[in-house]
Amino acid sequence: MTRARLAERATPRTAGQAPAPPAAKAARASRPAFWTTRRRDVLTGYLFILPQLAGVAVFVLLPVGMAVWYSLNDRNLFTGEQTFVGGENYAALANDPQLPKVLLATALFCGGVVIVNITLGLLIAILLNRKFRGVTVFRMLFFSPVVVSVVAWTLVWGFLLQDNGGINGLLATVGIDGPNWLQEGDTAMLSVILTQVVRSVGVNMVLFLAALQGVPRELYEAARIDGANSRTVFARITLPMISPTVLLTVIVTIVGALQSFAQIAVLTGGGPELSTTVLVYYVFQQTFEFNDIGYGSTLALMLLSFVMLLTVLQWQLRRKWVFYED
Predict the structure, then answer these.
(1) Most CB atoms within 10 A, among 66, 165, 263, 303?
(2) How confident is the model at residue 114 (pLDDT cuts 50, 70, 90)?
(3) Cα-Cα-Cα-Cα dihedral of 290, 291, 292, 298, to 10°?
(4) End-to-end CA distance of the chain, in Å?
(5) 3-class DSSP state for residue 148?
(6) Rounded Cα–Cα distance for residues 268 and 159 (Å)
(7) Is 237 exposed, middle or buried (0-12, 13-18, 19+ CB in 10 A)?
(8) Alpha-carbon torsion angle 188, 191, 195, 201, nearest 10
(9) Contact call for residues 85 and 72 (beta carbons, < 8 A)
(10) CA–CA gap between residue 128 and residue 209 (Å, rounded)
(11) In 3-state terms, what secondary structure has residue 236?
(12) How many C-beta neighbours within 10 Å does residue 282 have?
């Protein structure tokens, strides 16, 4: 008896089952496995980001979708009644006499916060980037307002900025009659800007400080050997090297300024005469004070559009003025 026949007898075979042809066996052997290393890595990556994706879906995409739906309806919070109105809420934007004042106040507040915050944060970072006794204490002092509650911080400044508060008390000691900071249009806007800047400048200071410490010392030594002065060194070396951080801080500061609510609500309540009513506070007023959910949702979508537009615009402009070291 040959070896092939003995092997055939030794292999168990069910009734009616024919032996697999050699071509089929070769096809199965050459077929790639489904769970390859790449697919396992991809699945592992998705599992790691699944909680974040779930959070984005629940707390970002779902509220935005609901805001879009509410903007197409007239909804009453108390009775729960809802009527589809289509684009009437969007058409009401053009007929709102208060909206131009709100947009102007938003632009002034956002522009003031960004300019002062970025400039002051960079200046403080440059001063604290030097080695001297007590530098750690100064860094802690400038950053400490960031960890304080927004409402608590604003309440304290509200007492200081009153007509008979601490700021005017200090001015009176040197013979200056201070204004009623929170009840006059110009000083009210200035007050909320400075309150926001003093509290949040510590974040930009830390970011700029980290960027400054990452600039190679060799570049400064070469510039000093070539006879460059401090202004030239800052404009030609420091600023280009920290430009990615400048872009980041500008984007974060603009988004934070457009979302500032507690400072306005606690200090001025949007007054006097809408001079400090920024868009996010106007959304709150229309939605919860005037019970106009549809129009408030439309304003919220306008605010979202502004944030996205400014972020994309800055991201596109980075190619022109942001230096990336290769």
Answers:
(1) 263
(2) very high
(3) 90
(4) 75
(5) coil
(6) 12
(7) middle
(8) 120
(9) yes
(10) 8
(11) helix
(12) 26
Cβ 205 vs Cβ 128: under 8 Å: yes
Taking the C-alpha atoms of residue 99 and residue 253, their distance in angstroms, rounded to an integer, is 23
pLDDT in tens, 116-143: 999 999 999 999 988 888 888 888 888 9
The residue count for the chain: 326
Task: Encode pLDDT of 26-44 as tens digits.
Answer: 555 566 677 788 888 999 9
137-173 residues labelled b (16+ CB within 10 A) or e (exposed): eebeebbeeeeeebeebbeebbebbbeebebbeeeee
Report the C-alpha gap between 138 and 284 in whole angstroms: 38
Q: What is the pTM of this model?
A: 0.83
Q: What is the token pair recorded at 31?
A: 């077929």
All residues at 6 or more sequence positions from 244 whose CB lies less than 8 Å from its CB, including other chains: 211, 318, 322, 323, 324
